[in-house]
């Protein structure tokens, strides 16, 4: 593994999942792997789980983690090549990233999309510029279009929760939200579940909320949420803004909120969400506080996902 930006950086998903589960059973089994190494965690946007779980994962491997909230504390970065920097940006990534490459052995970056320009966001300019100029392995802590550490966590959680000798039915359902949110988690979950190939995967959302087939190809897609939920073993709840009319909110129909009544059609499904979640908008209190919800268990697995990825990057000569 050279960088960790998407599922395409992983040669064997199940091997990575098993490694994560081995760390869960024995967190300090590789306590010296990261000795004398440093990871820089750059946040251009807020985070709780990603930040803390990656710090803990690094500590478990004996590695120092330094957090830098670039969005709040750093110089405003310019990412466009050949930009005339007469506006608000103060430092070009071309100048900043090589310095970070000298300070750190691995760089983690969180950089959300603008939701203003689909082409720019989907080019992944920000994270690609860091890869181009830092000269060290880069880990996505959620980029403009993907959230691979979350998706690896999700597959770890499904693997350890589902013990039957058949393929689980996994449903990704759109949920209402008050703000326009990125498509990252839904794109990434779809990409990983399809690449994993060990679940019957259904995506349900209102009309005009289609995701890019580059991520969803292989899934069954329906606008009928009730139909989608029938017999589901896992229901992954997530909002995303529109893709074709980029970054817009068309529908906030509360009827799409997952409730206990809707879960009656499932096969006693476990309910997942990447968090943070808007209670009684995306998911009802009843579901979140009930026995079906595994969101806390899911979030706790973020540590083991991060630890398995960092160990892969540390295992190659840095
Ligand atoms: N799920 C997730 O990435 O959480 P944070 O935004 O808190 O890191």
UniProtKB/TrEMBL annotation:
Domain of life: Bacteria
Pathway: Amino-acid biosynthesis; L-arginine biosynthesis
Domain called Aspartate/ornithine carbamoyltransferase carbamoyl-P binding: residue spans: 2-160
Entries under InterPro entries matching the protein: ArgF'-like (IPR043696), Asp/Orn_carbamoyltranf_P-bd (IPR006132), Asp/Orn_carbamoylTrfase (IPR006130), Asp/Orn_carbamoylTrfase_sf (IPR036901), Asp_carbamoyltransf_Asp/Orn-bd (IPR006131)
Domain Aspartate/ornithine carbamoyltransferase Asp/Orn-binding: 199-311
List of residues binding N(2)-succinyl-L-ornithine: 142, 177, 238, 278
Broad class of enzyme this protein falls into: transferase
Keyword Amino-acid biosynthesis in record: yes
Entry EC number(s): 2.1.3.11
SUPFAM superfamilies the record matches: Aspartate/ornithine carbamoyltransferase
Keywords, in A-Z order: Amino-acid biosynthesis, Arginine biosynthesis, Transferase
Record: residues binding carbamoyl phosphate: 47-50, 75, 110, 147-150, 274-275, 302
Coiled-coil intervals, chain numbering: none
Catalysis: reaction(s): N(2)-succinyl-L-ornithine + carbamoyl phosphate = N(2)-succinyl-L-citrulline + phosphate + H(+)
Family: Belongs to the aspartate/ornithine carbamoyltransferase superfamily. SOTCase family.
Subunit field text: Homotrimer.
Function: Catalyzes the transfer of the carbamoyl group from carbamoyl phosphate to the delta-amino group of N(2)-succinyl-L-ornithine to produce N(2)-succinyl-L-citrulline. Is essential for arginine biosynthesis.
Name used for this protein in its record: N-succinylornithine carbamoyltransferase
Gene name as annotated: argF'
